[in-house]
Amino acid sequence: MEDKSHTVGTFQVGDYAVFAALFVVSSGIGVFFAIKERKKASSKEFLVGGRQMSCGPVALSLTASFMSAVTVIGAPSDVYRYGASYVIFGVAYTFVVFLTAELFLPVFYRSGITSTYEYLELRFCKLVRVAATLIYIIQTILYTGVVVYAPALALNQVTGFDLWGSIFATGIVCTFYCTLGGLKAVVWTDAFQMVVMVVGFLTVLIQGASRAGGIESVWSTAHTGGRMDVFDFDVNPLRRHTFWTLSVGGTFTWLGIYGVNQSTIQRCISCKTEGHARWALYLNLLGLWIILFCAVVSGLIMYTFYSRCDPWSAGSVSAPDQLMPYFVMEILGAFPGLPGLFVACAFSGTLSTVAASINALATVTYEDFVSQCYRDLSNRAANWISKALCVVFGVACTTMAVAASYMGGIVQAALSIHGMCGGPMLGLFSLGILFPVTNLKGAVGGLIVGITLSFWVGVGAFIYPAPSNNTRPLELSTAGCNFNLTADGSNQTSVSVSALTSDRYWLADSWYSMSYLYYSAVGFIGTVAAGLLITLLTGESNISLAHTDNSLKHLINKQSSRLTYTNELI
Predict the structure, then answer these.
(1) Cβ atoms within 10 Å of 28's Cβ, excluding its own
(2) Taking the CB of residue 547, how many other CB atoms lie within 10 A of it?
(3) Residues paired with 271 in a beta bridge
(4) Greatest CA separation for the chain
(5) How many C-beta neighbours within 10 Å does residue 499 have?
(6) What DSSP element (H or E) covers 16?
(7) Percent helix, strand and coil across the chain, each to the nearest 5
(8) Cβ distance 230 to 88 under 8 Å?
(9) Residue 53's beta-bridge partner residues?
(10) Cβ-Cβ contacts under 8 Å for 499 (sequence gap 6 or more)
(11) What CA–CA distance (Å, rounded) separates 273 from 52?
């Protein structure tokens, strides 16, 4: 194995030039659409692209936003430590896209709404709509801040890439092209960034496989190291990753932040027809599989390269998330511009996620608050307000990224908020769409119960991390390292395990040790079960509600016939 004692390089001028090109092109797309669409000054044109988008760019945009820099940097590290079972997420992605396209999309698209939460007012009442919108705004700002900060920190600590420069550049550029070009700029910029992500991954795959001795060597070493044990059918919900947690739990997790998420649905309803929207989702599935495959293979190549000298155990990096940038700098450091290409790949995921979040936040705020308070706004005024909201939320997300630097371990909790909120929100929409009997009290009560349960298990798991017998990290070796381990590096594992197993009570080893992928399922089941029970106790909803308009009745009838047909097939 190669000498690992040398230090990896840092960013050079060529790397900064490649990285800067990503920001220049992204900004240029925003300017292009600002000039092109300057005569179409309406909030609908700005927020949903005039509902004239085609399936291709929307599919690329969905994939780019779905795969943030957390995936580009974090997924290979997960495979490195826990094995290739991560690939089973592909099963979850399939279910998520199918359910979104066939169940949720028709409801939102045919209703003609701009904010997904408008449906909740039509189905239940304004209070439910406002509550859901506020939950979405809070969780999205928190999550977006972490999506910006976490990869920037990992890249800074490994490559020397300026931390605050990258954070502020991300916030400024995203806000710039979102404000100028609206949804069309977001979609086309995402499409460009998706191409950058794939090219960056392919660069790492080709050079990494070459340095690791070829694909056969990667396969053999990964198999020997236990990384190819993909299918574990243990039904224990406390296990971190098994076939069931990844496929079933992963479906609930991603459906909660995908199927009823404003960012996703907003781009789907921007398509010119429902057929285009459905095709966009299915083409996006192909993109998800490609990115997932690249991430998993990158993790296996990285494990093969470091199979005899793990940089984390040896103290060369201080956190697992730094492994991928460290690996890239080691294999690509001799090629000017290529490390910059990988960083552009990672930040393409960040830019696409942040831009989609800013645009979605502006949309729900305008539709659910501004337009409800000021119903007689002119198109010009509505357009300027929408742009101003993009600026406000761009500043908010960037500020959250700065705040994340002072949060320490709470960053992990902030990343989990998406899952903890997504499950109850999925349950709330499911009560409205799948269970016509659900009344207002059931919806409100179910949401409260679901949020309580998912946050109880999520926060508890953060305070009492699961023991290693549930997470089961695979063995890492430092036998081939050419330098001495520090005391901290040599006893790191034993210290962490003893810390985890002391002062624990029964909930810590049962309820709080549940796989993080089931948090969303807990919230979903709690919301639906409590909602139906409260409805049963208080009297079911009259679905012909005099309070609902004809469009909602049409929605309910359409969805009821769809469910009847599905039940007949089953």
Answers:
(1) 14
(2) 10
(3) 53
(4) 77
(5) 10
(6) helix 13-36
(7) 75, 0, 25
(8) yes
(9) 271
(10) none
(11) 8
Which pTM value belongs to this model? 0.82
Which two structure tokens, joined as six digits, stand for 262?
A: 């404003």
The token pair at 115 is: 């904010």
**Residue indicated by tokens 């009297």:** 539
d(CA 64, CA 201): 13
pLDDT of the residue at 405: 67
Structure tokens, 396:
């908010």
Q: CA 125, 127, 132, 133: dihedral to nearest 10 degrees? A: 110
Looking at residue 368, the DSSP 8-state letter turns out to be I
Rounded Cα gap, residues 428 and 420, in angstroms: 13
Cα separation values, 453 from 420, 425, 435, 523, Å: 9, 13, 21, 6
Tokens at 548, concatenated: 């609902």
Structure tokens at 201: 């991954």
For 449, the token pair is 């119960």
CA distances from 126 to 117, 123, 175 (A): 9, 9, 30
Task: Report d(CA 53, CA 187) in Å as an integer.
Answer: 9
Q: 377-426 pLDDT, tens per residue? A: 777 788 788 888 888 998 888 888 877 766 544 445 555 677 788 899 99
- Label residue 189 by pLDDT band (50, 70, 90): confident
Are 474 and 225 a contacting pair, CB within 8 Å? yes
Percent of the chain scoring above 90 in pLDDT: 19
Note whether 294 and 63 are within 8 A (CB).
no
Residue 53 DSSP SS3:
strand
Sequence-ordered list of residues with C-beta below 8 angstroms from that of 502, at least 6 positions apart, any chain = none
Spatial CA neighbour of 443 closest among 559, 519, 535: 535
189 φ/ψ angles, rounded to the nearest 5 degrees: -70, -40
DSSP 322: G
User: Distance of alpha carbon 348 from its chain centroid, rounded?
Assistant: 13
If you search the block for the tokens 């479906």, which residue do you land on? 251
User: Which residues on neighbouring strands pair with residue 4, listed in sequence order?
Assistant: none
**49 Cβ neighbours under 8 A, 6+ residues apart:** 182, 183, 184, 187, 270
